[in-house]
C-alpha cells in the first residue's frame, strides 16, 4: 500500500493539456453561442474574448475554467509512515543472463503477490546447492524482506529470511500470509500464560454469568 510510483511530468505535456482544455471549452462555448450579436449579448457569456477574426474564444486565466475541465495534480514529497511490512512470500530463480557479473552474486526473488516488485537477493542467502540444482527449489516458498529500492533500478534489493516449505501446503502458506501482514504468531511467553487460571478445570462463576451477555 505504501509503494509509491512517481510519474515523470513534462512541461510540454502541461502546455498541450492546457491547449486541449481551452479547445474543449471553445467548442462548448461555440455550442452555447447564438447566431447574432444581439442574441450573444442575451446569452451573457463572460470571461471570453476573441483575439482576431476567425479565432475561437481563449481563456487567459485558468482559474476561470470550470472544474470539469481541470485535472488536479500532486506530488508525493514524504512518506510519514510505512504501512507495508516489507516482507513477501515467493520463489527464487537464477538470473537469465548467466554471463553477467550479477549472476555470480544474486538470484531473483519473485513474490506471489504481484503488487510487490521482484527482488535481487544475495546468493549467500540461498541454499548451498541452489546454483547447481535450482529445479529442486522451484516449488519452495521463501520469505524475503525488501531492504532497498534504488531509483534507477527496476528491481528492489532484499534478503532471504526463511524457507517456509513446499507451495500449496497449508502450514507454509499460512505462515507466509501472517508474516506478510506483520502478524505476531509466536508462542505466548510464560508471563502471559501465568495470567490464565491455574486451578483447572476452570469454570465461569454464576455471578459473572449473571452480569455478562453470553455469546457462546
Automatic annotation (TrEMBL):
It comes from the Eukaryota. It is found in: Cytoplasm. Keywords: Cytoplasm, Exonuclease, Hydrolase, Magnesium, Metal-binding, Nuclease, RNA-binding. GO terms for molecular function: 3'-5'-RNA exonuclease activity; metal ion binding; poly(U) RNA binding. Its main location: cytoplasm. InterPro entries: Dis3_CSD2, NA-bd_OB-fold, RNR_Ribonuclease. Residues 107-182 form the CSD2 domain. One of its GO terms (biological process) is miRNA catabolic process. One of its GO terms (cellular component) is P-body. This is DI3L2 exonuclease. It comes from Hylia prasina (green hylia). The lineage of its organism: Eukaryota, Metazoa, Chordata, Craniata, Vertebrata.
Amino acid at each position: 500500500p505504501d509503494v509509491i510510483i512517481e510519474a515523470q511530468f513534462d512541461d510540454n505535456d502541461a502546455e498541450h493539456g492546457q491547449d486541449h482544455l481551452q479547445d474543449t471549452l471553445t467548442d462548448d462555448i461555440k455550442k452555447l453561442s447564438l447566431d447574432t450579436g444581439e442574441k450573444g449579448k442575451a446569452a451573457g457569456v463572460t470571461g471570453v474574448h476573441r483575439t482576431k477574426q476567425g479565432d475561437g474564444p481563449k481563456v487567459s486565466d485558468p482559474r476561470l475554467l470550470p472544474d470539469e475541465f481541470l485535472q488536479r495534480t500532486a506530488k508525493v514529497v514524504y512518506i510519514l509512515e510505512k504501512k507495508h511490512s516489507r516482507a513477501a512470500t515467493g520463489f527464487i530463480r537464477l538470473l537469465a543472463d548467466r554471463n553477467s557479473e550479477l549472476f555470480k552474486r544474486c538470484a531473483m526473488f519473485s513474490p506471489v503477490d504481484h503488487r510487490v516488485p521482484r527482488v535481487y537477493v544475495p546468493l549467500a542467502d540461498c541454499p548451498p546447492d541452489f546454483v547447481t540444482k535450482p529445479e529442486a527449489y522451484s516449488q519452495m516458498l521463501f520469505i524475503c524482506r525488501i531492504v532497498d529500492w534504488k531509483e534507477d533500478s527496476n528491481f528492489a534489493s532484499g534478503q532471504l529470511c526463511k524457507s517456509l516449505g513446499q507451495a500449496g501446503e497449508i502450514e507454509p502458506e499460512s505462515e507466509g500470509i501472517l508474516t506478510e501482514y506483520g502478524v505476531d504468531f509466536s508462542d505466548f511467553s510464560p508471563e502471559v500464560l501465568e495470567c490464565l487460571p491455574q486451578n483447572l478445570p476452570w469454570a465461569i462463576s454464576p455471578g459473572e454469568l449473571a452480569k455478562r451477555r453470553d455469546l457462546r
